[in-house]
Amino acid sequence: MSGKVVALFVSPSKGVVDRKDEVEVRPGGFVQDKNFAPPEEGKEVNKRQVLITEIELLKKHSMEPGSQKENITVEGVDLNSQKPGAVFEIGGVTFQLHDKLCCKGEKESIKGERGVFASVVEGSKTIKVGDSVAVKQQQ
Fold first, then answer.
1. Cα gap 7→66, rounded to integer Å
2. Apex 91 CA angle, 89 and 94, nearest 5
3. Quick check: helix, strand or coil at residue 96?
4. Nearest of 46, 132, 51 to residue 89 by alpha carbon
5. Are 3 and 74 in contact (CB under 8 A)?
6. How far from chain centre, in Å, is Cα 64?
7. Residue 34 CB partners (closer than 8 Å, separation 6+)
8. Is residue 122 helix, strand or coil?
């Protein structure tokens, strides 16, 4: 199962979402993002480092890339159906999938289809729009 990155976003400060052609990724998330936090020894990994949404689900609900405040919008790969623990790679960076984005009061029609949270497992690289996305290990 493989696809590609169609959009990248960072939020350098609260309420600001910037679309980028490329972003620097390290364990801890997107370096330019306000939520970037390198892992600390002995502490649990932040399971919400990066939010990834599929363009197919956005289109299904008449939404645009970036509308869910996601960091990565992908196409051609069904991450939403993967179970927590699945491992996938984007542009040479290894991620582990955790939970789906779910908010109180969201419409029933979109529940469970707004995106998935992931953490960076391995790799410190720049990922770009157009990079490949591939599931490496399903759970």
1. 8
2. 30
3. strand
4. 132
5. yes
6. 15
7. 11, 12, 13, 14
8. strand
**Token pair 């051609």 in the structure block, residue:** 76
Query: pTM (2 decimals)?
Result: 0.89
Residue 117 in 3-state DSSP? Answer: strand
Q: How many Cβ atoms from other residues are within 10 Å of residue 17's Cβ?
A: 15
pLDDT per position as a tens digit, 44-80 = 778 888 999 999 988 988 889 988 888 999 999 988 8
Pair of tokens at residue 128: 């770009």
Backbone angles phi, psi at 59, to 5 degrees: -60, -40
Do residues 43 and 21 make contact, with C-beta atoms less than 8 angstroms apart? Answer: no
Instruction: With beta carbons less than 8 A apart as the criterion, state whether 1 and 77 touch.
Output: yes
Residue with tokens 């998330």: 29
Provide the residue type at 28 as one letter.
G
* pLDDT tens-digit readout, 78-100: 888 888 999 999 999 999 999 76
> Which two structure tokens, joined as six digits, stand for 38?
């390198």
Q: Give the pLDDT of residue 68.
A: 82
- CA separation for the pair 95, 93 (Å, rounded): 7
User: Residue 127 is encoded by which pair of tokens?
Assistant: 């990922």
